[in-house]
Amino acid sequence: MILIPAIDIINEKVVRLKQGNYSQKTIFSDSPLQIAQQWEAEGAPLLHVVDLEGAKEGQPKNKKIIAEIIKQVQIPVQVGGGIRDYQTFKFYLEVGASRIVLGSIIHDDPQLLEKLVEENPETLVVSLDVTNNGSLAIHGWQKSAPLSASLIAKALKRKGVQNFIFTDITRDGTLKGIRKEVITKFVKESGVHPLIAGGITSLEDIRILKSMDHQVKGAILGKALYTGKIKYSEALKIIQGE
Asked: Got the DSSP string for 20-77?
């Protein structure tokens, strides 16, 4: 299991939203690159960088700064937000993103998704943003698809998708902790072993996820890191069994 710091970007600034609400954002830094280098120095094995404006508007808005992060750090970078066409996917691939996260196109353009899975099965990551009733949120969480996230994941796995992110959007940015039972239910029903995001607030949450390391591949940490609720070095010790 790995711990991945998240860097969410709006207008080239590091921000966090509460439950995907763009009107409830907190700015934590004016330098995404500096933050990326900080997490790298603290031992992060991978960064999760999201263009939040891109996610909302359907096309990338922070490509320049994201490309700079990829260039300047030595660890792999996973990129998401507004990647809804072949050209954008290829752009991030060419600038060196190690993983590229897709969300809304699994609903909007399944044919493109199939093409990208066929060409880049190890690079592609499908992000499943899950609502309280288990359905899928899309378009930067502005809309909800009337589909079960677990059934979608199961179908996508059959089609060759290897990597998934499961985000409990009812907990994302709330600092209320994870819901183990919701994660366990999703894993059981879908048969996939995702990265977990949304609500990870304490070292106890990290311990719970570590106890599930046969079910999940890792955790994406956001607001808890930036507010000091979790110190990355302490969380890393739990994962490493120290």
From this structure: TEEEEEEEEES-HHHHHHHHHHTT-S-EEEEEHHHHHHSS-S-HHHHHHHHHH-SS-E
Structural domain range at position 89: 2-239
Which residues does residue 18 pair with via DSSP β-bridges, in sequence order? 21
pLDDT tens profile 161-202: 999 999 988 887 778 899 999 999 999 999 999 999 988 999
Q: Number of structural domains, the chain?
A: 1
The active-site residue out of 8, 168, 172, 205 is 8
From the list 51, 129, 168, 205, the catalytic residue is: 129
CATH of the domain at 130: 3.20.20.70
- Known catalytic membership, residue 108: no
Name residue 211's amino acid: S
Model confidence pLDDT, tens digit, residues 93-119 = 999 999 999 988 888 899 999 999 999
Amino acid sitting at position 216? V
- 0.90 cut: is pTM over it? yes
Q: Is 8 a catalytic residue?
A: yes
